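Comment on this:
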Amino acid sequence: MKFALIPIIGALQATIATATREYTDALGIKHTTDKDKPKIVTWAHRAVSMSHYGLDATQLLGVYGEWGNSGSEWDAKNPTEESNFPADPTIEETKLLKEVVNLSPSCGNEYCTEFDMDLFKILDPDEFIIHGYRGSAWAIGSIISNVTEFMGKEPIFMEVSMDGAKDCADDGYKQCQGLSMIEVIEEQIELAEYLNLELPADFDEDMQSLCTSAKNFQEDMEIAHEKGIRLMPAYLSGSGTSYFADTKHDMVLRMFEELGMPILHNGACTNKTVCPDNYFWEYVPKEEYFNSCVGNITEGCNDNVLYPVDMWLYDHRTTNSVTNADFAVAYPDKAIIAGQLEFWPIGGRLVTPFHAAKILDIVGSTVSGAKRLHAATQCTNADVSSKPHKTTGLAGGEYACYAEDTHNEAYFKRCKSTGNTGNTGNTGNTDSDDSPATSATAILGAMLGIITFFGLI
């Protein structure tokens, strides 16, 4: 009798290891797997990000797309030195990319559409995880139907811009709220559970670092508000048109504003013939920004400008041009001349608690150390973490007042209680009490207890 029970116990243990797991992606598609460790192919930046959640070469079969970021001088095809772009992978992080198959071998740092479908079929992954933006696949939309037909199921779609991705294409974005970086981090924790990844030992430390960095950032932003400092995120050009960003629909800008940054909202240019806009950018010709200049645009006529920018958040793709000393001559804005500018890693790229904390640490102290350069303007009361604000934002040229009670508490919910954040919550353990694996473990435990009680083993 005792030996007859051994196969039963073994079968239950196997059930635990292969309990069916579910994951609903940003398009609302439900995915299921009963594989213990599903093998995957994903975008290179996503692979690097997920390595911080436990992904390694035992589950990662291949990657596609660019490894670095546009504008970076880092040699993505032969990465032997560290990049000066914080959103580029480190040498250590590229080791994983080198271990697996590259489906886009010609890609470097620029936007890249290369994808080797034949090689993908040879890899035959259990899951294909794609990088999505506004409900569409980043760079590889043309091959998605072929992938779906080959795999017999749709890929897992990971959105980085707007909540409710499937409804946000075209003009639908006007009804969609932007995602904050912590929300994408939490989504990747859920994906890690679905893939049955084992969170690294230092993941909890990274979450606690993010808690500390978020609190420090709040303190820096409170100082910035007291000084009357205002910031503007933009892709700046020394000639022609610059592009001013919509704070609502970028995960990093959302993180900044939801932790107190006084960011100016775009849309102040009322002449839409010369300043058209789209889902994210306001197109601002140089002459329209320096609207007091007649003829030559120089430092002598930069007092009255379209926006009272005391500090720029420059799109990191423009790092090498904007940080060049000659840029202040080409774009003689007060903040540029004063050197009051800091990088903004548009789209996050590497989305982990480690990288979020790193961004906050770099930007926060720079902002609090800046000086007000333009006449003071009044802030606007706003609930910066609310759905209405993340959907419609503020009028052009306005910025939200500092109010901690409106900040995004999700940045603190996994903090260990330290007495300085006013928040307690999950300390990094992402296991769900009612997960299939947990339920199966409970059943096995109960059965073993009964069997032991009756002396059957």
